[in-house]
Specification:
- It is built from 17 helices and eleven strands.
- The chain is an alpha/beta fold.
- Helix 4 packs across helix 7 and helix 7 runs parallel beside helix 8.
Amino acid sequence: MLRRTFIAASGVAGVSLTHANEDKAREKTNFSALPPEIWKWDATSTVAAIRARKISSKDAVKASLSRITAMNGSANAVVQVFEAEALQAADAADNAHRRSASATGRLHGLPLTIKDNTDQRGKRTVNGMKNSQAPLSPEDSPVVHNLRAAGAIILGRTNTPCLSSRWETDNTAYGRTVNPWSSTRTPGGSTGGGGAAVAHGMGAIAHGNDIGGSIRYPAFCCGVTGIRPTSGRVPMFNPTAGGERSLCNQLFNVEGALARSVRDLRLVLPVLSLGSTRDPLWTPTPAPAAHARAPKVGLIKSSPGLFVHPSIAAAVEEAGRRLKAAGYEVEEVTPPPIADAVQLWSKMVFAELREAWPGFSAIADADAVRTNQLFLDVTAPISGKQYMDGIGEILAMRRRWAQFLETCPVLVGPNSGELAFEHGFDVKGADDTRDQIAAQALMVTVNLLGLPAVAVPTGKVNVPDAPKGLPVGVQVISHRFGDELALQVAEAIQQRGPAIATWA
């Protein structure tokens, strides 16, 4: 189906998912097999090495800072670097470890980055706005608090489009973040800085958030992994926010993370998920279920309202082959019409944007205004009654998909249905905007449904503007609070494919 049509018309058997078993697996890290450059290590290996006193936290932090010095000038991924603070925190972490190994947290001594739309104590949340008058945050947001409490060390803050409002990462405050594989293509948005930072080794994990694919799309474009947890699983709150979040932001937006390995997402998810009374929507996580046998996996390769490029369809098929080899039952499935979900997501999200437009357009940069005006141009205004009816439609849509997931608890499909877009894709015109939304259809469907999803690369394709190839991959989707199940399946896909690294 044409990409614009629908818009215009409107494991292994017996695998346990317990954290205890995951931690046992991490203890088996083969340190002798790791490369000499610490910045190449994933987070799991880094934490294990620090815990085993093979390296210090300061070693890990210095390696990441050196990598930022080497790569960030061309990548423009990390827009604020906290070198002195990070080294001081590393010294404190190492001193604590010397006093008592048992005092170390789950992420003890691990260098990582925070997206520049999330409050961090003593820092300004610029969020891509030139001449931002954002005040210094008096305290950490819950997600930053959780990361620090687990022992993580913040290297800096990563780039995002103005007001985190595009699938491109460019703004007049800091400029454009460069895709690690092709200078002519987007690194994705809105966590494009985090995706590029992780891909280049500038921190093992990058924090991000996702209301319409803002973690999964940069992970896809940059060739890394990313998790959008179940809505409500990770607390979300910015102390400097001028008001409360809108309904769609409450229902669709989540905090998550990007990393080079799925096992690193396993490592960080329990940390992110710790509760906070500052977010009344936070939900205690049920204990992850163990499956007596490998669950059924459904491949989504087509659906009304979903455009899929041949190279992306091939990635979905490749993921299916790997899962069959791992012992999973895999078959192509037809989910509830994705067109319906995308139309509903667009109707509700852009209705809220339309109401906020006077304030948004007054402070956003020209490209953010242009991009979002095009979103409004391709969706019709709705009445208050239609918005209220839409709230009920969200519940009905979630019920329909929950019943579908009872028969097939894991789905594998595209992140974006198109290869990483070339720069300027979102400011061209209405038809290109319809194409853009159609390509992102399954990503925004997941946000509407509040489901967990994990982006995982499957390989690279040859294109003229990417000398080392352009990453492609899939997203693994599961039912509400099936985050660990989605991670299990994503890890099986990643383990049976080639390693993808910008420095290879």
